[in-house]
Specification:
Number of strands: 19
Structural class: mainly beta
Strand content: 35-45%
CATH class of the largest domain: Mainly Beta
Radius of gyration: 38 Å
Shape: elongated
Length: about 325
């Protein structure tokens, strides 16, 4: 009997080749993976260094100075601070200390209401409104962005500043009356003289004494409002009477409503927008022929920009 040939020891030759190929493939894969990781590390370093920053943000910006100006009450003088060099569109922060020292005829606080970049950049954020009281200092903080392209020059910031009307003006308790007028009708014009002649006989109204005033006539608006907060609909108005008894300013109401921005200055006194209301003045509110008692009406004064802002506390009219 013929003995069959015995099987060779170990795996076949083609199996050895496949295992060797697998080993070489794994080595190649490891090498490729290492190269990819190294390339990614290099690319990350270049990106962090700005090598792949878009062209629009690589443009050089040289801000030679930052000019801060004020519009309104002008509680502060123009301020200039140093500039800086940065990339286009890059944000940066600026802080300016504002100390307030009012003059003898100025209120005890001034408020920064808003801020805007006029030239050479964009305003991103500001800690406004910012109230600065007499003898104190507050830091105005601005976040700015450089222009989106190449720029060399000054960055200009404009701030609006104003005095709170509640710190600038106050009146005494209102006194109701219907015996002030002697005229046929109420009137307000350049030829208005005395209050009696300007108010219709029998009209009801309120007299208020000016207790304190650091406000100009053109910087205040008077309101008479209902309990719901709407202006009372009356075809009458407001009168400022000086110590001599002459009408220094008057307003017949705004579109038939009890709201007065004071636009009429009778020639007998020669007042203007810039004339200051005096603590020697009185205010008369002409409410018309109907008795307003018990209606829950209230009086307030509103500051008019650019110099004054805000509103006084509501004063009940009995």
């Amino acid at each position: 009997m013929t003995t069959p040939p015995s099987a060779p020891d170990g795996p076949p030759h083609n199996a050895l080749r496949s295992r060797a190929d697998l080993t070489r493939a794994r080595s190649a894969l490891g090498l490729v993976t290492g190269l990819v990781v190294a390339i990614l590390i290099v690319l990350g370093s270049l990106y962090a260094a700005g090598a792949f920053t878009p062209a629009s943000t690589k443009d050089a910006v040289d801000i030679t100075g930052i000019r801060i100006s004020f519009l309104g009450a002008s509680c502060w003088n123009e301020t200039n601070i140093s500039g800086r060099s940065l990339n286009a569109g890059q944000e940066f922060n600026v802080s300016v200390a504002l100390a307030y020292a009012p003059g003898p005829a100025e209120p005890s606080a001034c408020e920064i209401g808003s801020a805007v970049a006029v030239t050479g950049g964009l305003l991103v954020a500001a800690n406004t409104p910012l109230l600065v009281e007499n003898g104190s200092s507050q830091n105005l903080r601005l976040t700015l962005a450089a222009p989106p392209g190449s720029y060399t020059g000054v960055l200009s910031i404009l701030l609006t500043d104003s005095w709170p009307i509640a710190l600038s003006f106050s009146v005494g308790d209102p006194v109701p009356t219907n015996t002030t007028g002697s005229g046929a009708t109420s009137s307000c014009g350049a030829n208005t003289t005395t209050l009696a002649g300007a108010i219709a006989a029998g009209d009801w109204g309120y007299t208020l004494t000016v207790e304190t005033s650091l406000v100009r006539m053109g910087g205040v608006l008077f309101d008479v409002a209902t309990p719901q907060g709407t202006n009372v609909a009356q075809a009458s108005g407001f009168y400022v009477v000086n110590a001599a008894g002459d009408v220094a300013a008057c307003e017949a109401g705004l579109a038939g409503l009890m709201s007065s921005p004071f636009g009429t200055y009778p020639s007998i006194v020669g007042s203007t927008y810039s004339t200051r209301l005096s603590s020697n003045d009185t205010i008369f509110i002409d409410m018309g022929p109907a008795n307003p008692a018990g209606q829950g009406y209230s009086f307030s004064a509103r500051g008019q920009l650019p110099e004054y802002t805000g509103i006084t506390a509501l004063l009940s009219l009995p």
